[in-house]
């Protein structure tokens, strides 16, 4: 049994913001840091700001959140819905890419991740979708009490202020309904609907209904199958993005105990004590950068989330000492973090009196732990990193929703299209002027019945809200064959060679759960994303493929080697093939034929080989990587327990990815 605790390291650390980056206490960027902090949070994205905010609610606690990116400047490209997706690849993106995907076309793929105060909530598509109750119930079934739908729902409710759609006519037209019992009325995140609706979603839903897929009543009530018009994290008062920065930091920036520094890259977690291969080579228990100074007290450990730094889901008091079984390690203490603005700058250290909380995302959290000596022993040895804890699960079990774009342009010019914003300068300028004037759009429903002067306001409708989450048995006659193929696989057939037996055991258990749920008519196998201009993008919701995220250098400023290994398990490819074939059925329904679609990509006569070529060339991330710090037992390759103790709090703990747009779950943490 291993005990992870940390001594209180009272340090004299008054570093001006000129050396540390922008310090956003209030709006004074020149105020120095405190001498020490109770809690240090690494990563000021969604989860990082949520947990920092909650911890700092108690004024006697001091909290420091460290962000590698900068703070945005309330630019239109961030706040205005019309620009959704436009800032990907820009200054607020880590600009990561995968290793070459040889199972596809051999090319690398971009892997956008938010590098900004607020993280991915600054870049994402703003869709507010929780996922299905079955997803969370599956988490609990793996030995994680309190993580089922019933346990998670109160936190989802707490996070939001839900505003119903403003028009009964629109609600009826777009089948937008809601269950008040599952929505919040006083949470930080504003959840609402745009003031402008493209009518193509009506046709899509009607077509799918004809094919036996009923529209969901409320896509956030735990149901997870069928088409739905999902709400948006959009402030109904001004039709702007309601992101983590504007909801969990800006209103609380004047808290004297809540500090944020930006532009600072955490290079490692400081660990002391006897590690897996002897003494860990980190600073001794001292008070300043050189290891000299007083030490007193005892902290709660290297923990994250409900059982550590935030209130437990079940209301119990977390234990003071966190124990993990590992025969090679004992007597480790976490004392703080090391950070710097860039590779050439001097490294600074800051110490925590209670906890260090890692909320750096699925990719960077795994990288940071590996750089700190926590991870697969062979990997750390390869880069001469002193082993603190041999945890094979760190960086393994990577999974992601992957998508394939399609192009079926609608030729019925009587339907307004978002492409007009880029092809019709006059129309776009009128829409921009209206948005800038009053931040609203016309409360329209049947836009076809209105004249051109009344069809303004599309700048509020940036998100692809018309979605569908389709179960495999309801869309494919081949579902029995696909399920048989999945069931008969040996768990090692499509995993990385040479994995630790615990990782294989973990995937074996996951595969059984995935097969069971793939057969259900109430569980989504894939998603359709409707952009209202002729694209019905398809995305795998419960992938069988597993990838890796490993350091490729001991230099923390070098990105990790990200290998999602999309579609390496053939079940995922088979699901996408069936999804593309079902698109043809949708397009052939009378409501969709009214739009006059032209099937360009893939072509209407594409055979399976041609469909595979479309997939190989076009497959990309849907921006939801997870799983690299799995919430599983150690014998199943786990990294954190059901209380999220010891390692992490962010979405990297997810071991079975859910059928939703990932940031929603982080707001609920």
Automatic annotation (TrEMBL):
Residues 1-21 form the signal peptide. Residues 114-137 form the Glucose-methanol-choline oxidoreductase N-terminal domain. Its cofactor is FAD. Residues 282-299 have a biased composition (Polar residues). The keyword GTP-binding does not apply. InterPro entries: FAD/NAD-bd_sf, GMC_OxRdtase, GMC_OxRdtase_N, GMC_OxRtase_C. The keyword Lipoprotein does not apply. It comes from the Eukaryota. GO terms for molecular function: flavin adenine dinucleotide binding; oxidoreductase activity, acting on CH-OH group of donors. SUPFAM superfamilies: FAD-linked reductases, C-terminal domain (SSF54373), FAD/NAD(P)-binding domain (SSF51905). Keywords: FAD, Flavoprotein, Signal. Residues 310-319 have a biased composition (Low complexity). FAD binds at residues 116, 266. Residues 222-243, 273-337 are annotated as: Disordered. PANTHER family: DEHYDROGENASE XPTC-RELATED, GLUCOSE-METHANOL-CHOLINE GMC OXIDOREDUCTASE. Belongs to the GMC oxidoreductase family. This is Glucose-methanol-choline oxidoreductase N-terminal domain-containing protein.
